[in-house]
Structures are given as C-alpha cells and as structure tokens.
C-alpha cells in the first residue's frame, strides 16, 4: 500500500522533486524533499547538508465515497494550513513555517524541523529526547525543556487555539544556537482548532500527561509538574485575568483526568 502512495506522489511531483518517505500515520503520509516548491533550482545548504522540506500528503481513502473523500481532503488540508499560517504569526509560539498548500490534492509543504539525536536515539521529538535522558532523568536541560514545552502550550491556549492531538511525538525539539539547549516546536495541527473552551484545553493537557505517563512512567510526576509550571507561567504573566483563566483550565484538567480514571476503572 505505501509503495503505491509513494509512486502516486512521485508521479504527481515529477522526478524534479525527489522524495523520501519518513512517516505513514493514520491521517497522512509524510515525506522530506530538498526542493523548495517556488525555487526548485535553489537547493540551500546548512552545514554542507541540503536543507530539507516536509511534504504532508493526505492520500484518498478507498473506503470513502470519492466525492466526500475529495471534500474532506480539501477541508482538512486547508484547515491545517490556515491554522499553521495563523499560529506562525503569534509572537513566541513555535510552529513549522507553512510553505505551500495544494488543498485539492491534499499536499502541505512546510519547513522541516529537528534532527536525529545522538547514539541512535531517533528523531528529536520530546518522546525520544526523554528516552535519551533516562540515565540522568532530572537534569537541568530536561527540566528547562519541559518548562519551555509547557510555555508553548500555554501560549497556544492563551491565544485560544487547541492542538487536538498533543502527544510527545508531536513536539519537535530544535537545537538552540548554543548547541546545548533545545527549543520546542508544536507540529501536526490536523486536529487543531480555534477554541476558547476550557474543556478543549483541559483535554490537550490530559492527552500530553497520559502520553508522558505511558512512555516515561517512572519520571512522569516530575515531568508533568515542570510542564504545568511552564504552562502556568504564561498565564500568571497576564495578571489577575490570566490567573483566573489558569485556575479554570487547571480545574477542568483535573476533571478530565478524573473522568479518564473512572473510564479506565469501569473498562
Ligand atoms: N515540520 C516537520 N518537521 C520535521 N518532521 C516532521 C514535520 N512534520 C511532520 N514530521 C514528522 O512526520 C511525522 C508525522 O507527521 P504528522 O504528525 O503531521 O502526520 P500524521 O499523519 O497526523 O501522523 P499521526 O497519524 O502519526 O499523528 C511526525 O511525527 C514527525 O516525525
């Protein structure tokens, strides 16, 4: 199946745009390419390596009626692109830069972020980064990174946007210029939305908390504390109004967690 999709994409993009498959998820297939869609002859180099771009492609789903499938693809591709474009303009918030959208055919071209971690620890998302640090799990860099991840979520929420699928794989870490610290970026806004609902914000926090508990259970309490410290920091800086909003979100977060516990007890 995946070779079929690769062939379709290669044919559509022509041999002028070489692609490499990096992920096949439930929603989309993701490729890298060294080609910029508007400046194809302008292959940039960083540290002697060609700059990469991400191509996210929503393939047609055979089980859907073809007309509905086309409408859904167009709608989801456009909605994710619009969201990326709006979020990119929020000061301090880090999301990939949108480069091009071909909504009728389901393509989003965006900035490539992150790198391969040393010692075969995989791609630099939060999940792999925490694995990489599991021998010294509470070091200052881990603490600082989780605080900054919390701040990113706080910035997203205080601007009334929600992610919708906030797992530790959807947080990509980019090395800071000092080569020691990491800058978190939020990716994959396929289920994202503009929302001022405390419920949506509470669910975002719960999804990430669960993701961290499931992959790093021994250290999860401290990790989640640092995330919430960073999150709270953004709201606390906004004075009384921010503190009030923060209280509402954290209360709802506790309610969502309680509901989750009840559900898992009942089964
Ligand atoms: N801008 C980016 N820079 C670097 N890697 C990226 C970028 N966007 C996506 N990826 C990689 O591709 C993977 C899948 O991307 P994304 O989550 O957007 O697609 P998806 O189909 O919604 O995935 P899933 O169904 O697994 O959630 C990411 O986990 C990440 O490893």
What value does the average pLDDT take? Answer: 95
**Count of helical regions:** 7
User: What integer value in Å does the Rg equal?
Assistant: 19 Å
CATH architecture type of the largest domain: Orthogonal Bundle
Strand arrangement, largest sheet?
Answer: 1-2-5-7-6
The percent range for strand residues is 15-25%
Question: Quick one: overall form?
Answer: globular
Looking at CATH, the homologous superfamily of the largest domain is Transferase(Phosphotransferase) domain 1
| N-to-C order of helices and strands | HEEEEEHEEHHEEEEHHH
The ligands bound in this entry are:
adenosine-5'-triphosphate
Question: How many E strands?
Answer: 11
Structural class, judged by helices and strands?
alpha+beta
Taking pLDDT < 50 over at least 5 consecutive residues as the criterion, the unreliable ranges are: none
**Helical content class:** 40-55%
Counted up, domains total 2
Q: State the assembly state of the protein chains.
A: single chain
CATH overall fold name of the largest domain: Transferase(Phosphotransferase), domain 1
CATH C-level of the largest domain: Mainly Alpha
Distance between the termini: 34 Å
| Largest sheet properties | 5 strands, antiparallel
GO molecular function, one term: protein serine/threonine kinase activity
Main location: nucleus
Family: Belongs to the protein kinase superfamily. BUD32 family.
Keywords: Activator, ATP-binding, Chromosome, Cytoplasm, Hydrolase, Kinase, Nucleotide-binding, Nucleus, Phosphoprotein, Serine/threonine-protein kinase, Telomere, Transcription, Transcription regulation, Transferase, tRNA processing
């Amino acid at each position: 199946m995946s070779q079929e999709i690769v062939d379709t994409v290669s044919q559509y993009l022509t041999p002028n745009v070489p692609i490499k498959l990096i992920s096949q998820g439930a929603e989309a297939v993701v490729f890298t390419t060294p080609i910029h869609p508007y400046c194809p002859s302008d292959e940039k180099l960083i540290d002697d390596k060609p700059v990469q771009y991400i191509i996210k492609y929503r393939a047609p789903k055979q089980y859907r009626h073809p007309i509905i499938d086309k409408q859904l693809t167009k709608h989801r591709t456009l909605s994710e692109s619009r969201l990326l474009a709006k979020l990119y303009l929020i000061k301090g918030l880090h999301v990939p830069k949108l480069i091009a959208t071909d909504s009728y055919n389901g393509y989003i071209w965006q900035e490539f972020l992150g790198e391969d971690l040393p010692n075969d620890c995989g791609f630099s998302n939060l999940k792999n980064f925490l694995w990489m640090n599991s021998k010294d799990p509470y070091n200052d860099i881990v603490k600082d990174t989780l605080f900054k991840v919390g701040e990113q979520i706080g910035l997203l929420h205080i601007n009334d946007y929600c992610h919708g699928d906030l797992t530790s794989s959807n947080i990509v870490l980019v090395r800071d210029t000092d080569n020691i610290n990491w800058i978190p970026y939020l990716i994959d806004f396929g289920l994202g939305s503009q929302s001022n609902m405390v419920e949506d914000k509470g669910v975002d926090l719960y999804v990430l908390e669960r993701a961290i508990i499931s992959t790093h259970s021994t250290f999860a309490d401290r990790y989640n504390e640092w995330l919430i410290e960073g999150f709270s920091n953004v709201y606390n800086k906004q004075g009384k109004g921010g503190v009030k909003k923060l209280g509402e979100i954290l209360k709802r977060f506790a309610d969502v967690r309680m509901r989750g516990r009840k559900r898992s007890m009942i089964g």
